[in-house]
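User: quick one, fold this
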Amino acid sequence: MGGFGLCGVPENLIAALRGRGSTGLTVISNNAGIDDFGIGILLKSRQVKKMIATYVGENKEFERQYLTGELDVELVPQGTFSERIRAGGAGIGGFFTPTAYGTIVAEGKETRVIDGKAYVLERPLTADFAFVCAWKGDRLGNLVYRRTARNFNPVMATAGRVTIAEVEQLVEPGEIDPDHVVTPGIYVKHVLQGQKYEKRIERRTVRRG
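Assistant:
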């Protein structure tokens, strides 16, 4: 599932998955949302069995389920996380990174010294389904993302066996300048127009003028 914090989150697809009632899910996402938004609503309804993520500090329900043993968690350094997804989409069987060498993250993994520097072998990440959110898309699945909502969505779109894209604006083929396309439609199996986006702000900080 694409998104970073609460930005670029496929809100409609997550709500549909909750409504469908699917359980035992393994979710790959940068974070777990918050208690009542994003992936947090799937955690609240006990539909998620395992989370593969990089940051989970804003979700109390996530913390509770993890500490009670209800939820399996694989925490991955953010750069490694992104590259594992990119590798999955590119058909790369793995890569060596110095990140996490000598830590518990590297336990049980192959290590290698290359030119005098120690590296850890990381495997690619793929999924049965990829849920992504784009600002604009056409009916052939060509997608354009807007500003920071681009985040993890493009790499997620390449690494799912079936990629489903929800878009804020759905247009006809030819209406998007080819130079502006970020995710080509070849990666997208289904596209739908999302509605009623909340686009929440995770934390609002103001200062006096």
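User: anything notable?
Assistant: The helical segments are 11-20, 40-44, 60-67, 78-90, 153-159.
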